[in-house]
Amino acid sequence: PNPGGDPGGDTGGTITEDTRTAENFTVLDEGGSEFLYHTDSNGSLVEYRRQDDGSWLPTNLTAATGGPIVTSDLIAIDLAGGSSRVVFGLTPNGHVARYEYTGANWIAEDVTATANLPPIASSLTGLVLHRTTSNTTVLYGLDAAGQLIEYRTGRAGWTARNVSATTGGAPLEPKLVAWGETYGRKQSERVF
To answer: Which of 87, 115, 132, 145 is most exposed by smallest CB count within 10 Å?
Structure first.
């Protein structure tokens, strides 16, 4: 793709925003299909799907779902090997917005409000730990004081914990990266 300009030829959508910053631009290559996500000047999340002819087909996900406005920190994750994908981003008030394609349509929610979790001010990053019988989505971000906040899915839904407070860690700088892997029943996660 050509961020900041026509994302693929003379047909399809044109991105008119400057998408060269990680806060409002992310790409997902899922099962041979390419997807580009960005937020427009109104905070709408837009998906561009690469077509067979090389053009890009735009879909305004915020308008299609009535989902939350997203202003920064986009991340896209392949949840199920091509049949489900999810895009997370931060709203203007530090809530985590979640847009998921379920194989038939898009759904959206404000994870922070729905699960009554603490806000995340910046540096949203995340990963999915794939297991034989289930997946766990883990998100990390910084609160306004630079403390590391973790959101995690589980049987009871989303939960949160202040990792910095739990470990006695010092405030962190923005631009986190998450890494993790699963070995049988054991898992390892790192945030840099």
So the answer is: 132
